[in-house]
Amino acid sequence: MAVTNFTPLLGLALPTTGDLSGTWGTTVNDAITDLLDDAVAGTVTLTTDANVTLTTTNGADNQARNAIILCTGARTAIRTITAPAQSKLYVIINATSGGFGVKIVGAGPTTGITVLAGTQVMVAWNGSDFIVSSGDVVGPASATDTAVTLFDGATGKLVKNSLVTVSAAGAIVAPQAGSIIPFYFASTLPAAGPYHGAVAHLHSTGKLYFAHSSAWQIITNGLGTADTAGNVTPVGSAGQLLTNDGSGGLTSNTTGTGVVTALGVNTGSAGAFVVNGGALGTPSSGTATNLTGLPLSTGVTGTLPIGNGGTGLTTTPANGALDIGNGTGFTRTTLTAGSNITITNGSGAITIAATASASAATPTVLGTVYGATSSASPNSTFVGYEAGASTTGIRNTLIGFRAGFLNVTGTNNVIIGFAAGENTTGSDNTFVGARGSGAGGGAGNAVTSGARHTLIGQYDGNQDGLDIRTATNYAVISDGAGNRLISTANGQTVALDSAVPNSGTGITFPASQSASTNDNTLDDYEEGTWTPAYTPYAGSFSTITYYAQIGYYQKIGNTVHIQMFFYTTNFSVGTATGQLFVTGLPFTAVGGSQQQSAAVGYTYQWETNSPTKAIVYQGTTRFEITRDVQGVVNSSPELTAANLKNGNPANGLSMAISYRVA
Q1: Close Cβ partners of 649 (under 8 Å, ≥ 6 residues apart)
Q2: CATH of the domain at 184
Q3: Which pLDDT belongs to residue 393?
Q4: Residue 149 above 60 pLDDT?
Q5: Co-location of 550 and 637 in the same domain
Q6: Disulfide-capable partner of 337 in 212, 343, 354, 409 (CB 3.0 to 4.6 Å)?
Q7: Average pLDDT in the 428-447 region?
Q8: Same domain, yes or no: 41 and 93
Q9: Is 150 inside a domain boundary?
Q10: Residue 181 to residue 460: CA distance in whole angstroms
Q11: DSSP 292
């Protein structure tokens, strides 16, 4: 008998007892051994310049079973390899020409992994997608301890040895230049020769040095302190000079007779004398830099250039004139009035108004590439870049970037918000809501020919299970992510959250309850049917058939009301023992220690002791049926399978129960 069972991942033969009588050798060789060889070390070569779905067959050669996928030949684009979406390890070698990657994805497809041209990657299935099989990064065998590793783009290796090293003390060594850059020494400097080109800080003195040849040169001498904002407070007192301290550094002069209170400088050809803290004088020539308090009204002549904050213009501006950048400077000009617009230039003011000839038939437009402005679209208002750019319809109010962008002939629309109603061609719509960071594309963004909608929020017309792109007369209020809060339409119910409006009048709740903690809130309503059935505590009936199994339920908040009627046509006990239950309740009863009971309404044709009451078991979808014993208070003798009768009809039970759910 041929093998009919195969392993789920590699498709290897799984012979069972009685299979392969006299032929097992061929099957073991061809359907197990050879295929294991492929799965462990086999290579499939893909040469075609096209997307490829790996073949999958049980008990025979296929492409998906191989361990290595070798891609060769020329590629003109990134090509996709689709493998089974199941546990598997592959080595992907991209040896193609053309410079394009190859991408391996799981059937579905999944996101997958792209392997660049000239590289190879090991990928593994993680349960939902292929990922790169990670591991420790290994450098070249000749790697130097403490060397900085670099990417080797020439050979394609991930890392290669570097000539730059970092010592344990934090010194960066660059052997090609023969220099070491230590940043810190505690109290003494080493010989400068080996540190040529380095900058060092000596902690004990606070000085900064630069190593040149065989000597350290002082860069700074700790002449000030800086706070966390970088503000420097210099040492010394006002008027003191910096002098050589005899050891190559600078220090502030602290002797009384050495403090200079007036600095004389001969400036200009006239030789005017400048005194520290005194008047500048009037030199005949020279360049003033780093001055403060220079009066612009009397101290500046000529034209102030643009680079110094000026305009580069020499004329006095007229009333209403504006200085507008032209790429190299400024052009001084006045506004030019468009059609039906007047501009009045006053002293320090510009007044813009519509002319007396303007009328309601003239569109009001504001923005760049705004809607059509001919008499073909009268009584309209467009505000925003490309708002209503294609429309010729009338009486439209479109406000926002690309609001109503493609509404060519629609009329009587009010569309407000970035990208709101961008694709609609319908009429009599009111869309309010801009595209944001959520899933919503903007109010009514996906609506095409749909008309007479009122949409407020980011719901775009085809989200959250409700598609009204070509429908009419819907009203939807949504949140900033496009999630519907309230939805309704003419002649349909009011739907809450993700529920969809239905025909008729009423309130439609979501299929999955969103429970409220408020005692005065109705948070769920549902109607439906259920199927009651007898079930023993243990074991099972040999035979039980039903003529009718009728059950109805109504769920209001956390309370379920059920009605039922059913009876059997054939019955035998079998191995059934213990209490007798009715199973199949539509909702699980509330948990804890609470049990809920009810009275039986009607029974028919029981063997002995027909039931009179029922107890709903907490945390389950079943209730036990029991009976009263006449004259005994609080009695609830259990009924068992022995109480059921074999007849047609028999064991009829009709009752109604109300119970609480979680």
Answers
A1: 547, 567, 568, 569, 604, 605
A2: 3.40.1620
A3: 83
A4: yes
A5: yes
A6: 343
A7: 82
A8: yes
A9: no
A10: 61
A11: -
Interior angle at CA 646, CA 640 and CA 650, nearest 5? 90
And the tokens for 459?
Answer: 């719901």
Instruction: Kindly report, residue by residue over 18-28, the tens digit of the pLDDT.
Output: 777 677 666 77
In this structure, the answer to whether residues 547 and 653 fall within a common structural domain is yes
CA atoms 431, 434, 437, 441: torsion sign: positive
Token readout for 427 is 């009429």
The pair of three-digit structure tokens given for residue 347, joined into one six-digit string: 């002293």
In a domain, 174, yes or no: yes
The listed range with the strongest mean pLDDT (7-16, 348-357, 424-433) is 424-433
Query: How many Å apart are CA 288 and CA 592, to the nearest integer?
Result: 91
Q: How far, CA to CA in Å, does 92 sit from each of 44, 131, 156?
A: 10, 12, 16
How far is it, in rounded angstroms, from Cα 129 to Cα 108? Answer: 10
Summarised one tens digit per residue, pLDDT across range 472-515 is 999 999 988 888 999 999 889 999 988 899 998 888 888 777 77
> What DSSP character marks residue 41?
H
Residue 478 sits in the same domain as residue 569: no
- Residue 158 resides in a domain: no
Count: domains in the chain? 5
Q: Is residue 98 part of a domain?
A: yes
Max avg pLDDT among 245-259, 296-310, 354-368: 296-310
Query: How many other C-beta atoms lie within 10 A of the C-beta of residue 493?
Result: 19
Q: What local confidence, expressed as pLDDT, does residue 260 receive?
A: 43
Please say whether the beta carbons of 469 and 462 come within 8 A. Answer: yes
Domain that holds residue 332: 319-358
Question: pTM of the entire structure?
Answer: 0.40
E strands, 47-150, are 52-53, 68-71, 79-83, 89-94, 102-106, 113-115, 120-125, 130-132
Rounded to 5 degrees, φ, ψ at 48 are -75, 145
Q: How far apart are CA 550 and CA 97, in angstroms?
A: 70
Whether residues 329 and 453 fall in one domain: no
Mean pLDDT within 592-612: 82
The last residue of one of the domains, among 186, 203, 220, is 220
Across 255-269, 320-334, 432-446, which has the greatest mean pLDDT? 320-334
User: Does 90 share its domain with 54?
Assistant: yes
3 state SS of 82:
strand
559 and 467 inside one domain? no
Together in a domain, 582 and 550: yes
Q: Let me know: does 450 contact 410? Beta carbons within 8 Å.
A: no
Structure tokens at 548: 């009718």
Last residue of a domain, one of 132, 151, 186: 132
pLDDT tens digits, 45-102:
999 999 999 999 888 889 999 999 999 999 999 999 999 999 999 999 999 999 999 9
User: Three-state SS across 299-354?
Assistant: HCCCCCCHHHCCCCCCCCCCCCCEEEECCCCEEEECCCCCCCEEEEEECCEEEEEE
Q: What's the length of the chain?
A: 662
